[in-house]
# Entry
Amino acid sequence: MSLQRGSYGIEYDERQSSSVRKFWFLVALIPVGTVVFLFAKGCGGGRPDAPLTDEGMGLSRRYTTVPEVKVERERPSVVKHLLQAWWTPNAATPEKKSASAPAPSKESGWRGSKAAPPSAPTGKVQSAEVKQLLDQAAAREEADDRVGARLILQQVLVRRDADDVRAFAERKISGLNTALVFSANPMPEKVKHRVASGELIGKLAKQYGCTQEYILKVNGIDKPELLRVGREIWVLKNPAFELTVFKRNNSAVLTLNNQFFKRYTVGVGKSESVPGGTYVIRGKVKKPVYQTADNGEVAFGNPQNVLGTRWVALAATGATPEVKGFGLHGTWNESTLGRQVDAGRVRFRNADIEELCTLMPDGSPVNIAE
# Structure
């Protein structure tokens, strides 16, 4: 087969001299590759952001959920993407954006519509009834109606659809009860008494079924002998306090007239040293001395004295067998709370056991639940 110059020879020569054409061909591929790369990146319809976690938001899982929101996705447009990247005359700088951002609200409160403290159940999807009750309680508290707020929160506490806010409701009720019972504010469980001639603190405490310590504290009386005739004082009228210690979760719940009053964190001793059953308060000791196993004594205030500032002796009732030296006490080492401890019986913060001694008269029931 004869080869003519016009068939292969010339073509061969052109391939040898086509370096410039190859260069322009590669240059032409650059914008095409750029367009393909941008399209693959999904310009105009970016990758969805990573889901927010509880740790990132700084909120408790039990109070926070992030609802799913469906958004119509915009179709990718290479031209639109390039134009937006090249010319954005109205885009504000980060400094301008931060300057034009609205200032945070100065309102305080624990409703979802306001800036709430970390303990508030912010953003939790609850039933409409629970939301309404929380809003009503918040409005009552803001209006300084603590009794009304407490009453509404007690309704939340017993609802089956309020599991996610029950702990929050307990904390709120605990705070409201403490503020009400130790202040001059009225509450259904308190009455005013005008002191008559010959009346003493001990007599009034026995008459109304509360402790002498409570009458002195709530009325700001330093010494019993300073009680003046004709003065009106606050007293608790026949309060029915009852304490239940839960060994499993190291907590104790105080009720008043069969209504939740406050929850405490406690440290429970070994199971055999804290038998379950029913007891009553037999007596209280201020600044107790700790008796060691070898009949030694540890003075009050010594860090080795595990009894803290108060000792509350318990006596068994009903079918519960009597336990020698059984009771509740304070502690100098609060790191032992919330877990099982080796020494001691049932320990509280010193401030908490002092509060219980002030509220609960002798004979008040104490239950130890497994």
About this structure: The longest helix spans residues 19-41.
